[in-house]
Protein 1
Amino acid sequence: MSAESVPNACDVLVVGAGPAGSACARTLAAAGHAVLLVDQHAFPRDKVCGDGLIPDAHAALRRLGVYDEVMALAQPVRHVRCVAPRGGFVDVPGTLAVLPRKVLDHVLVRNAERAGARLLAPLRFEAPLEEGGRVVGARFRAGDALHEIRARWVVIATGAVPQALIAAGMCERRTPSGVALRGYVKHEGMVERLPQLQMVWHPKLAGGYGWIFPAPGGHFNIGAGLTGSHIQQRDGRHKMQDVNLRQMFDAFCEVFAPARELMEGGTLQGELKGAPLRCSLIGATWSRPGLLVTGEAAGSTYAFSGEGIGKAMETGLLAAEAVIATPADDAAVRARYEAALTGLAPKFSLYEKAAHVNHRPWLADLVIWRARKSPRILRRMSGVLEETQNPGRLLSWRGITKLMLE
């Protein structure tokens, strides 16, 4: 990228062109703001993710006007198959699809560009520009060249890796909430056998779960990961729970026959890749004068399921709406945005509490056993997926106790 091609000013500078950043940039540009959308990678680019589009993602895609374009490329799915340690399972109906992030993120970036945002990539965020205690832009690096871009607002949407948050003075916890490892496998012979999103709990996967998600073209996204894997020490700091993700992935293939068959009979596309997760709207300061933090950088992933695409877009939309409402009033923008995230926080808290099932896989046996016998409980599980049902009523200790009485 030549120095001449990098503008030196804009209204809003969005750093990170994933779902949150692209949703934010598109909404701001459509409202008439001059928006620069910056990413450290040229597009299309890969992103480690489960690739599942659950109902909140569908809703956000509709708001962004890109739902039909995404669904034309995605693999539609009707159920999540929840598999318990003893092998029992239940198929939970839902509004679902799978699309690799390399494709999805490119669609979202193009959508932002169509609305008038300008993509600058690859540019690596170095630090914010500050004057009088307010962020007034950011400094970027492209190779050996440095670029300074001034902006009325800067939005950090750089995902779970904390370096940008640290540089911007917004990181409250460097340790991620979880970690995951995934790969793509092509296996045409298993397409009819694995039409659902498969989520598997087992003692050898304690602290998380394994998954197989059917993707377009006879491909499968297969992985394993931990949620809530940080440990708070006596000094208040956090460290990662000791985990070897490759061993966890191998254990998943050992205990779940379809995973083993997929890896043994299919063709691995590329390599297995790992990534951190930031969950439950915890770990980052949400705003400071001139700057907002959104998406997974702000912790927009659910701790229970590790799903975060929909909520990333939703928080990006909230950031854009706050700026659009009163762009010249720092206090009003920050108050509006932080109030919106605070409004989402109770829901994240409920999914944080539900995540204890990941650490006690035997509870999955109980819930799935009861759901197989009770259409009412199955409807509740579907409601958790659709976000119309409080997961605490089903997956809290109190909720699980009530299962035994229904």
Protein 2
Amino acid sequence: MSLKGKCVVLGVTGGIAAYKACALTSRLRKWGVETHVIMTRNATQFVTPLTFETLSNHPVVTDTFARPETWEVEHIALAKAADLFVIAPATANIIAKLACGIADDMLSTTALATKAPLLIAPAMNTGMWTAPATQQNVETLKARGVHFIGPEGGFLACGDEGAGRMSEPEAIADGIRELLEPVQDLAGLRVMVTAGATRERLDPVRFLSNDSSGKMGFALAEAARDRGAQVLLVKGCTTAPEPTGVETVNVTSTRDLYDAVTGRAGEMDVIIQAAAPADYRPETVAEQKIKKAGGEALVLRLVENPDVAAAVGRMKRPGQTLVGFAAETERLGEHAAEKLAKKRLDLIVANDVTRPGAGFNVDTNIVTLLTAEGEEALPMMTKREVAERILDRVLTLRAGQ
């Protein structure tokens, strides 16, 4: 690890998780990272500035108008010095400020001024985290390239149980290390990732689809990109902000997905199929909007769509690694193991989409990784963290080929 001399500006906001930022500061200093702490006024109610000054060996900044020891505009000086800007814990309030560009204290002012990458570790009540306003602010920041780690699920200080607990200092430190010194262990590999839902038209205004947002596939594409891979993203219908820095092919129907994936599969070293294609489509598509028929039932005849994963499995060449997903509502292990063998996959990621915190339209997932050698059940994690674990397993499988 060669982080000596790197500069991290650590913002600490007002929440009980502020005590965890002390352990984070200590770990960074042990790594040789120059750590400068900015605390909001509310944060000082939980941990004293003296604690962070002792741990970081630097003065703590709390007041925009305090006279600096050296003649510099302090928020600009710190903004320029930062190799990475971290806010941990990050309350709903600071997330909202950053999303809206509000700069009304030292922390928000410096964060707005910096050109350094920004890593946010949220910590708040479950209701605040899941509030539409907070989620919209998070998506706004992600679309601007801001990195997030957590929050985790579990028992919260307020007595609630659910997502909102700040990630542990060790996990945040690992995230900082990856951003300061990115691991490029996928460099030279061509990785295809599929994401999102497909749509099968009934008529010009209606379609059959599912609830996939594309978040899991996007997390995989971003993680592979950040680890040095050349990424091709085949994207269906999604609601999450799209990754940048990857080649993207847009598709609509399952047959579109089939054509796009099979047409490029031969070029790829790794194919990760996280999309949620429709298994069936209407046999015929009405040319005009289907109207009600005086109380009579509407009967739809559906036909099977091509199985994209099975087709890729049949095309599999030596040296390729194939990863599939099994989103199930019952008999998870049985169905996943069947798909693993039938579709010639090297790894299948199985999850029960009926479990809270797993499946569609959430930022977390609870998955089991299955290979021919066995399985590993993972606890609730963010989808980015799940993506990293999947890629770790892909590299292990490739090393054994």
Protein 3
Amino acid sequence: MSSKKGEDGFVLTEDYPCVHYDKNVIGNAAALNKYFKAIDELVSGKRDKLRIVHIGDSHIQADYLTHTTRQLLQKTYGNGGRGFVFPYRLLRSNNPENIKISATGDWDGCVSTSYRTQCNFGICGASTSTYDSTASLKIDPDRYRAMNYDFSRLDIFHFGNPNAPRFRFLNGDSSELEVDILKESNSISSAHFTSDQDSMWLAFEKRDTYDFVQLFGLSFENDDRGVIYHSIGLNGAHVQSYLRNQFFDEQLQHLNADLIIISLGTNDGYMSSRRFCDGCFKDNYSYFLTKIRERNPEASILLTTPGDYYRRRRYHDINQRQVVRVIGELSEKHETGIWDFNSIMGGSYAIKDWVRNGLARYDLVHYTEDGYVLQGKLLYDALMKADFARIEPAKPEKEVTQTEDQ
């Protein structure tokens, strides 16, 4: 396998024959002008942070794709912090491998993809709770020390009530850290540390009447100038499950995104064609985008199309063609950018080519780590090319020839 450099030389990617590199562009890139302006302000020192929120399903929960794009952008523009993390392990689900989670006590959890449960849900559609006053949670946001994700600020997304226990932050010898805690809203608290921390050990102080603790996730931020790239994913998520998240609107608004990337559609179409309602999908997605735009008017929005897949490894899902078409129509209607990953990977039936090249798993839905890393590099390249393309080189002046009057 040879090495191929991105068209504009931004990042090295492997030269796979199944990938249509020429289609790796951002459609309607002018819709990202607010994001590009934020980059200019970051580079010129007029602002300290560039904030990106990437929302999606299992392809995003795993964080291979998003972590790759996160690291590349942070190496380009600076490291502003790890961003959003949820302890999926407490739900017996897969954590991103780049973070480490440990917990004590009894914890329960639920997800918005299960319509049999009645829970409060935060931004990612997952919640974990405990009635155990001895429970604690420890998160290391930089397990392999690939990046410096020390943090001085921690945003806690939670369900608060008057009887909820007080948060306590402990160091390695169980002594309490100095921290100022500000309650931003009923579902958000911010902890500001007097010195940088490399991990978080969260415990609880019982009040007179002990009530449950319910967590929706945490966000890690430092004091340095740079990019924060939040990965908001949930296995099995579809547009309607995100619409169930009661605290989604206010918690997304709190992240103050300059760019919101939405990667949904796989699970929306993952059913027989007899059951699929493209009009319902379009209406739900359109409403979702309207809600996001109302609360985040200064953010650019980028939609991505889902890749090719099979159902139950046997049936090629023709619904994805309608899903891709609907996402394209919504991009025009809501004036968003679009990254057509479906075309980049090769369109219908391409998933088998990706399996043969070691980029997709044999379930014919998900990708290998190499496949997700490649996607992260492609997304970074597409964003960088769109940014550079808006700066047009100066046109050479026309040569003027003088002639003498005859």
